[in-house]
Design brief:
The chain has about 100 residues and is α+β, with helices and mostly antiparallel strands. It has one domain: Malonyl-CoA ACP transacylase, ACP-binding (Alpha-Beta Plaits), CATH 3.30.70.250. Helices cover about 35% and strands about 30% of the residues. The chain has four helices and four strands. The chain has helices at about 5-10, 30-35, 65-75, 90-95, and strands spanning about 15-25, 45-50, 55-60, 75-85. The chain has a four-stranded antiparallel sheet with strand order 2-3-1-4, covered by helices on one side. The longest helix is centred in the C-terminal third of the chain and has 11 residues, at about 65-75.
Amino acid sequence: MKLGTIDELKNNTNKSIQLAIRTIPVLTSQSLLSVLDSLNKSSIRYIKQQQDFTILELDKEETIPKLVEQLSANQVKVFEIKIEKQLLEDVFLGV
């Protein structure tokens, strides 16, 4: 069990960002690897498909523009991006 204030617990949790991205063609784990030649592949992780979206986890927010640029350069059309914010409940569940 971890102890601390709400802010301390939030600051000690995983800083990664979950990103929901809707593209054509739909990204799979295999197609994502082939598209991401110039990016640090370890900073982007494929999580799952959820309806029309591919859920990715990024180490930092600064990766998003580079990801979109790389996808566009490989004829992958990006239609929508949603950054999933970590809720207070998620912080407590992760503690």
